[in-house]
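Appendix B. One record, verbatim.
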Amino acid sequence: MVKLVESQGNPATDPLVLWLNGGPGCSSLLGFFEELGPFFPNTDGTTLFENVFSWNKLANVLFIESPHGVGYSYTTGGDYHYNDTKSSKLPLNLVGMAVGNGILSNIQQVNSYVDLAFYRGIIGKPQYNTLKSCCPNVTNLQYCDFSSWLKFGPDGVGYPNPNNSFCGNEIANFGENYLWNLQDEDPYNMLED
C-alpha cells in the first residue's frame, strides 16, 4: 500500500513526510486511519470524520507499507538477480509470526482503555469510579474484564450486553464518547495544556 495525502496548505512547497509505521511489520494503515491521516473511521464502520490534527494540514504525507522483506534494500554485487531467484525457492516452515503494534483482540483493547484514559487525563475521577463500580472485586482496574459487559458486533464495535444494561451502557458510552470519537484533543499530544 502506498498512499500520498497532499498538504492542505501548499502542496508544491510544503515538505514531504514519509510515514512507515513501526517495524518493519506494523501496517501503515494503522497510522493512516487511526493516528495522523486526514480521516478517522466512525464507529458505524462505513463513514469517516475529519482528523483536525492530521499531519497533512502542513505537509504532504506519504504512507508506505513496510512489512518485513519488502525489498527496500539493495546490493551492489553482481549476483543480485541470482539471490532473488535463489531466495524465492527456499523451503520455509513458517510456524508462527510476531506482530508489533497490532490490534489482535477487541477484548484486550477494551480492557486496556480505562486505565489508559484515566492516567492520560481523558476521563476524570467520576467517570473512572463509575467504570470501577462494574468490577467491584478487582483492586487494579487493568485486570478488570470490561469486555464481559459488551457484545461485539460483526463490525468490531462493542455494544451493551443486555444482561447488564448499566455497566454495558457505561462501557459502550465510554468507548463512544471518550475514545473512538476523540475529536477535541490531539491523541499524540494529550499532555499539552
